[in-house]
Amino acid sequence: MESEERIPSLPANLKLEQFDELLALPSDLSFLPLANIPRNVLRLTALEMLDATRIPKHLISYIGPTITVEIKPKQGFYQNHLSMDIPYCNNCILQLEKCGSDHFEQMYDFCPLDLYSGNFSRMKSSLEALMKVPHRNLRLFTDGNLVGMISSRDSMHKV
């Protein structure tokens, strides 16, 4: 296939912001056919990172298990409605809708906008909120295997 027909698997931590940057990469890096992307897409951004849940066995100086904490902040954006000003991010709106339903037994204070804010106090509060009530946004791995979702500060201290 030609280079303009496929999306490449990028080197770790390489970010592409322009479609022309994507097309300039060699086709042998490719995994996803561009035909799978809708024609009306105006912007395509991708970030591929190393799998940090496992450390390669060939690293001689490494001793002990690999412990990985996965944070999956979701929907950290404001909804755009012409007729109303909504003061909550999409994640918080979904929280309000799901609270008390079969999805979640309790509401949590985590807001991804706090995590993205760059303000140390807000970022710290958002991480503390995730530790108290992780839902499906905080997971713990040992040697690449899911140990479980962290459910409280006490269990975090045990780990």
Automatic annotation (TrEMBL):
<dbReference type="GO" id="GO:0005634">
    <property type="term" value="C:nucleus"/>
</dbReference>
<dbReference type="Pfam" id="PF06090">
    <property type="entry name" value="Ins_P5_2-kin"/>
</dbReference>
<keyword id="KW-0547">Nucleotide-binding</keyword>
<dbReference type="GO" id="GO:0032958">
    <property type="term" value="P:inositol phosphate biosynthetic process"/>
</dbReference>
<dbReference type="GO" id="GO:0005524">
    <property type="term" value="F:ATP binding"/>
</dbReference>
<keyword id="KW-0067">ATP-binding</keyword>
<keyword id="KW-0808">Transferase</keyword>
<dbReference type="InterPro" id="IPR009286">
    <property type="entry name" value="Ins_P5_2-kin"/>
</dbReference>
<dbReference type="GO" id="GO:0035299">
    <property type="term" value="F:inositol-1,3,4,5,6-pentakisphosphate 2-kinase activity"/>
</dbReference>
<comment type="function">
    <text>Phosphorylates Ins(1,3,4,5,6)P5 at position 2 to form Ins(1,2,3,4,5,6)P6 (InsP6 or phytate).</text>
</comment>
<protein>
    <recommendedName>
        <fullName>Inositol-pentakisphosphate 2-kinase</fullName>
        <ecNumber>2.7.1.158</ecNumber>
    </recommendedName>
</protein>
<keyword id="KW-0418">Kinase</keyword>
